[in-house]
């Protein structure tokens, strides 16, 4: 024993407790070098390599082990460590021969100094120890530290010591490692002439004081996607005053990065600004162009009327950085041989990052990951370092990886721990499974899904009862039977929250065995289900509803098209078809009733790619087609969800997991109303019902696509639907569906919320037992938060995937001209939608090297006048679509105006690189 | 055992570390005791061991607070007051040790639903305070005429870094000691009533200390007898 300490402590009850602390030192930790006689038996765990590899260091050509100090280990090892290069990591984590190397803290010595001394003692001990072991081998331990004093002391004590940088630079065999060093050395950062750009961040204590006293506001920093000089801060706090503060200009943004928690100071009212409608991308290659920057900032500040002004502020300090590694690409510096380059993140909200690398030429055109190290006051961009090379740009796998990483989608394969909770194969329904479960295998159940669907989570049936009424059943895969609360499988599914569908890939929420086999309600196999069974009359009025766990055997898995065909064909009269017809009839009544109540029919341009079966390249693109059967299935799913929501809320008024869709604030509709007015139409937005009605009426005989456009625009006005816990909220209304209560019950294979709802319902009907977390509303609220986040991210990832595949598609297609409609008018650009591809894009009117056209933007209508042509919302234009490869940063679809012709702006129609003559022909037609 | 102790005593005198004189044939410091020196309590005593001195007063058997009442025996309470300041955690711990010892010997069943309160005031602490407190408590209980199964005494042993045993150590010796062991022993069977230790020691060392304490307790009990005899023969 090293020492013991005894002291007395008073217990809460007033008694006295004697506490004895004893310290022991281990004598059984070996040096780790194999074949070391001195610590023969003491080897366990990782050992050093017998002969250190990689002696290719010019500083120490003899074989050596490395002993990094703690800071080096923490900051550098992840970046530099590659298998085989740092052999001694394991042993340095636990200092060997502890009896000899124990170091006690001296008086006046702080913990860090003591640790440094301990490491030095260990290094010294190692060198002596290894010398004893094999004198001829000349093995040595090299001490790596970045602390100057520590290094000096080590050299004084006769230990070979280098800084991390010195050592890595000396590695002749791995020159690329130097890039991975986190750039910590202060001298390295002095790139600019010391000109201070930003004001200093206040220390945390001052910020906290300021926040308490109300002079500063705390909030999440959200950079704008469209304008790098603008950002908003969502002020945390009570819901009613959930304020948004605008920040404009580099200096006011003051080095905050998207998602950081910042403290902001409100500017006096006379400095308030309105959110600008300029689209600005940071493209400057030279970082010193501050004058240009200022000029750009001036663009933002244009005269606007008083009421548009919003609270404006500036960042005074950062409370918490939320930096993560960012995906993106390298923009190689123009200067040859330069080692400093700018990195452009894929996410436009992240500023460009300056990194130092010698392998710029190899990294060019590749997707890389970069981490931010810091942002000094005198630097226009944050400093970072290279972390990982993901692969070739435009490569499908790389791009998919990028978008998954960027959207924080957990996509690693399931761990062994998770898989261990899967049922053993071959699986079949046992007696035990049938407890509390109804046998519905005799019913004629079938499923209707999109083609190629392997995770079938719903099936339907409909039959006539003896009393003339109809019995309709919705059968949902019983996933909660397989995923038991609290185990690793459950936790992983809860973390993932949702299955993410990308164009060519699906990121499952539950392992494939469940998603595509045991839980998937495939035809002609026995499957466990959770059934919701209604008795309805022929007017689709619900007479009775009951819920039960069941076992079913689906008779057919149909696609929408197949089901439609069966309904339509008069020749078929089998059970399945009659069942489908009954369902279809009821669904139509249900839908009508729902729409009467004010449910919205919205539209968003959804596209589907036809994939080449071998290369998985998109070969064609079409907007999704909607059949009667789609809405038939949808109708019954909605009905099931509503019935279940009622039931669980009845049973658990405090902790039912529900879904709500708040009504949007009236201001959201402004753009829609203005747009409709420009076409002499009136859109009423006071209630969902009047909105739905006025959308139905909004038709123009000369412009058939207008209605769809209005619906697309209306969709953009909506709020996001969210999950919530009934005990934490009192507004349950679902605006879009015009239902007073709603939840998600019907897709437990791909949504975690449904699993929770299944569990709640199972408890409500006494088919399963409850567990503590299920009835803890705070835990449920936390879960809802995660689910909402994952759903949002999944949606973004999906969109990103579609965007990427659209690019691939146009790459193969070349340059095309298409008709488009203007969706939004901005200050210097128009956003257009191409109905044929469901593609949205921005047409810029200001280009870098061209003379600026005369732009007049009218915010009220809104319209944009360029030279003599005025653009209104919904105007039909013709645009040329091409893949912009000139800028490899972000390969993007570039659109430029073809029609109407504006000299100097639009592209002449007969450019030689236009491969299709069609537009020209059309144009001629019009000229007649 | 006597032999061992004597050599110990010799060694200490040789080292010259000892400041207070020790009686011949006894490695304990000089004792002194005075009884019935306070008028208010039912019994009182002051006990001196070298320069360590504790004053004790006993109240009881007296009326007990209802909340503290025990239906079949007397409630024993020990209060230890430090020389300066308020009693802290260390005092509380000692109080408890002394109370446990007293409870083991006092025939509380003869006075059910009463309270017996022992108040100890530290006059000076020069090592072996707990042992001195125990002795003072015992003498005060005797003075108050509280019925007891046996008398008890406290003996402190210290083991220094070389493993030498020191009985009744001074404050300085306690500070330098590797381990300090305090025992309470009864006068009839010489059995252990209480023990508390601090520091590192082996099994054998514990046995050795216990034996030494048992031997030393004879001296203490002899001293009790003599001082009581002196007192009662006077009157």
From TrEMBL, chain A:
This is Exosome complex exonuclease RRP44. PROSITE patterns: RIBONUCLEASE_II. Pfam families: OB_Dis3 (PF17849), PIN_4 (PF13638), RNB (PF00773), Rrp44_CSD1 (PF17216), Rrp44_S1 (PF17215). It is found in: Nucleus, Nucleoplasm. The keyword rRNA processing applies. The keyword Repeat does not apply. Residues 909-928 are annotated as: Disordered. Belongs to the RNR ribonuclease family. One of its GO terms (molecular function) is 3'-5'-RNA exonuclease activity. One of its GO terms (cellular component) is nuclear exosome (RNase complex).
TrEMBL record, chain B:
One of its GO terms (biological process) is rRNA catabolic process. Residues 28-147, 151-215 form the Exoribonuclease phosphorolytic domain. Gene3D superfamilies: GHMP Kinase, N-terminal domain (3.30.230.70). GO terms for molecular function: DNA binding; RNA binding. The keyword NAD does not apply. Keywords: Cytoplasm, DNA-binding, Exosome, Nucleus, Phosphoprotein, rRNA processing. Pfam families: RNase_PH (PF01138), RNase_PH_C (PF03725). It is found in: Cytoplasm; Nucleus, Nucleolus. This is Exosome complex component RRP46. It comes from Acinonyx jubatus (Cheetah). The gene is EXOSC5.
